[in-house]
Amino acid sequence: MAEERLRVVIAEDYYLLREGLRQLLEECRLVEVVAAVGTADELLAAVDRLRPDGVITDIRMPPGHRTEGIAAAHAIRTSHPGTGVVILSQHANESYVFDLFQHGTDGLAYLLKERVGELDQLLRAVREVVAGRSVIDPRIVEVLLRTHSRAADAPLAALTQRESEVLRHMAEGKTNRAIAGALHLADSTVEKHVNAVFTKLGLSEETNLHRRVSAVLAYLHHTYAPEP
Amino acid sequence: MAWKGGLSPGKAAPDTGEVILKGLLIRTVAVVGGSCLAYAAFVGTFVLQNRYTLPWILGSVLPCYLAGLFAVRHAPSSPVARRLLLVGAWLSLNITVQYTNRWLLMEADQVRPLLAVTQLTQITALVASVLMVRLLALLPDGTYRFSYERVVLRLLWALLALPVVLPALGVAPRTTHLVVFYYPEAWLPGCGAVLLVIRCLLSRRATGVPPERAEASSGKLLTVVCAGALVLLARASSRLFRAWQGDEGYLYFIGTVLGALPYILTSLVVVYAAFRYRILGVDIPVRRSVVYGILWLIISLWYLGMAITLGLTAVQYFPIGFALLVAVLSTALFQPLRTRLNRLARRWVFGRRPSGFELLTQFGTTLGNAHDLARLAPQLASELRSGLGLGWVEVRLRAPGVSDAVYGRAGARQGGKAGSHPLRYGEEVLGVIEFGLKDGGRMTDEDYHVLRSLAQQAVLAVHNVHLNAELTLRVGEVQQQAVELDASRARIVQAQDTERRRIARRLHDGLQQQLVTLLVKARLARVRLQHGGDVDAALAEVQDDLYRAVEELRDLAQGIHPPVLSDQGLVAAVTSCARRLPLPVSLQVQPGLEGTRFTTETEESAFYLVSEALTNVLKHAGARTVVLRLALERDHLVIEVSDDGHGRAAVPRSGSGLAAMRDRVEAVGGRFDIHSAPGRGTVINARLTALPRETPQTVKERING
């Protein structure tokens, strides 16, 4: 896994954080920071020039300080499908996640900014997106699940506690194996729970792991989307 | 005197026999008087060829007789009417006797008449004068009020003895000192006037509170009578001169002119007072124009008589050409007098009638009250009525803000409607004027012109009142708004201050404390590094605390301003807000609204409203579900939050949450309504002016295009 260090570009307008992050990543020696930039434009230019494996980018950057990171992620995924993008965001709000995943979930991750303190989580997210999968911050998955389990008649209420846990991990983008590891379960048990979740939520079973987050997210999003 | 002590109108009805007898007598007197008048006019003019016949008949006898007829016809039971007719008839009889006497003398070719005939003539003249006195002295009602009156008036009959007694005593007619007794008719009318003056004064003093009508009539009569007394004194003196100088010369002329006056004046006064003050005891059911016509006739006859007298007198003394000139001049001289008298009569009958111009001016000042329709309407009605002499006038004006018209009326509504005139301002009908028949005639073009002018002024006034009412209403609204605005602004400022204090508190008591603690923990890690200890555990604690600090900070920032609102717009922010509510929220968002962005102000107000409303539902409503509806109706963003909670009977206009919501909505020119009833939940409805906003250019757009 670590034989070849992943080449990563980081984008963060706050200089101290940018340098700290670069230092952190380089010191753990698992990734190579090929560029550290301060704006979305610079990020796009760097990606075009360096063609990195992954990008870690802040969500708010000059000039607008809005969601330039998300826009850049979409642009990168369009022009360089092989480059995964991790968004670091200070917003624990699912709206941004839906915004990020509006064209597809592949190769995209949405993490809260404080995850830089959990280096493992950050590195896992980078590896997942480089592999084309997706990751959602557990905090956001929690909000979504909490919302949906509230209504008494919601399908989520029909899930057992274990199935709910499995669902949360699925939404976070974890593989069955990772879920099994996190919950200390056997792979087959996890698989069984995953199937139960899909059935109870009325989703067509998604065997392709790449699409699984997408399906779960779509469910979580659209059952709460504004009524047409 | 057949009717001495006749019935006054207030007494009980006489028995029928007496009534028939009296009716017969009245007719006889009238017929005799009329016949004598015709006879005397014929004899005087054609047989005696006396040039003063016609003036005398026209100037005094005929008016008096006609006035008597008029009065008796309308009030047969009134003593005044009967006396007036009797005076007229007796005057006719008097000249009949005179003329017959002269005629007989002329036929007999004698110069001096027999003594008995002379005495008869004098007695008839005296009787006429006494009758006149009795008529005058007992005005206005014709009954005895005081005992002295009866005595004095009866004693007057004793004067009739003078023409017999004086010659018997050997007193010559022209004896200077006794001429007064030879010609009592010269001063007798004056005596009547004096008696009437005394009667009026005594009446006023005697009765503590005389009836208003009697008061008014005696007051007016007093003036007339005083003037009459002066004239009568002059007449008396002229008569005395005539007695000395014979029936020729200018004194005779003056005597004739003045001699007619008592009869004319008395006739005028009685006819006028009969109409105006009911002195005959009945309401005379004739139109004012008829009364005026009679007065006019009397005045005209007198004028004619005087003019002829003047002309004839002139012919006697001057050459014919000059005499003609005098005649013409005299006619011209008397004309203004006649006009003046006529105008006076008209005013007496119809009351003072302002001209059209006066009416407009007068109404113009009335318009000072124009703000008060309840006063304007009756004033307009009464001024129209008095100005145009209408029987009745009704005015209806449409008052602003009420359905009932303001109503004003002058005169009792009797008889048919003669016409109506709408009050229009442009197409708008602001009222109507209705009026009855005009007293004494038809409406002239000038009357209609005055009516239209007044109506137009009234329309402007009413329209002004309407404008004023509207203005007052608007000003009231604006003032109310200003007051509310002030209060709302104060509340907003207060809310902002409270919010700032809350944030400051969270920063000081929360974050700052956490950071200081972190400082301590970092220091602890360093101490352990130097002196040995579990450095990793200390740093892990620092990290955990930092997570909490970041979380706290995010919460705080979210509370100050949700970033998703500015980044993704209202629907995303509202959706996310609804998700975090521990209640199922049904979101009904109009299709196409999701991507729509509005001005920052609108979005913030809308979001604030929704989050406050949801918080309220959570806190107070006890609801199980909430429905949140967002829609764009034309250029208004409609937000509706309805819950199935227990609702409330009365929605307080001010109350922490609701007032703040209302303030917030109204501050951006929106409308805010709450509907709530116990057991039926609460619905909050707000409409905000929603101006779409251009989406700021994003990186994506810059990249793609």
What does this structure look like?
Chain A is an alpha/beta fold. Chain A has two domains: 6-136, 3-Layer(aba) Sandwich (Rossmann fold), CATH 3.40.50; 139-222, Response regulator (Rossmann fold), CATH 3.40.50. Helix content of chain A is 52%, strand content 14%. In chain A, helix 7 (161-172) crosses helix 9 (187-201), helix 7 crosses helix 10 and helix 8 (176-183) crosses helix 9 (187-201). The N and C termini of chain A lie far apart (47 Å). The mean pLDDT of chain A is 85. Chain B folds into five domains: 16-285, Rhopdopsin 7-helix transmembrane proteins (Up-down Bundle); 286-352; 356-466, GAF domain (Beta-Lactamase); 481-559, no CATH class; 565-704, Histidine kinase-like ATPase, C-terminal domain (Heat Shock Protein 90), CATH 3.30.565. Chain B is built from 21 helices and nine strands. Chain B has helices at residues 16-47, 53-74, 79-108, 115-137, 147-156, 162-168, 179-182, 188-206, 212-245, 250-277, 288-317, 320-350, 356-366, 373-388, 445-531, 535-560, 563-568, 570-579, 600-621, 656-667, 699-704, and strands at 393-398, 405-410, 417-425, 428-436, 585-589, 626-633, 636-643, 671-676, 682-689. Chain B has a five-stranded mixed β-sheet with strand order 5-6-7-9-8, with helices on one face. In chain B, strand 3 (417-425) and strand 4 form a beta hairpin. In chain B, helix 2 packs antiparallel against helix 3 (79-108) and helix 3 packs antiparallel against helix 4 (115-137). The longest helix of chain B has 87 residues, at 445-531. Chain B is rod-shaped and about 180 Å long. Mean pLDDT of chain B is 76; it is low at 1-13 and 208-216. At the A-B interface, helix 2, helix 3, helix 4 and helix 6 of A face helix 16, helix 17, helix 18, strand 5 and helix 21 of B. Chain A: InterPro entries: CheY-like_superfamily, NreC/VraR/RcsB-like_REC, Sig_transdc_resp-reg_C-effctor, Sig_transdc_resp-reg_receiver, Tscrpt_reg_LuxR_C, WalR-like. Chain A: Residues 152-217 form the HTH luxR-type domain. Chain A: Pfam families: GerE, Response_reg.
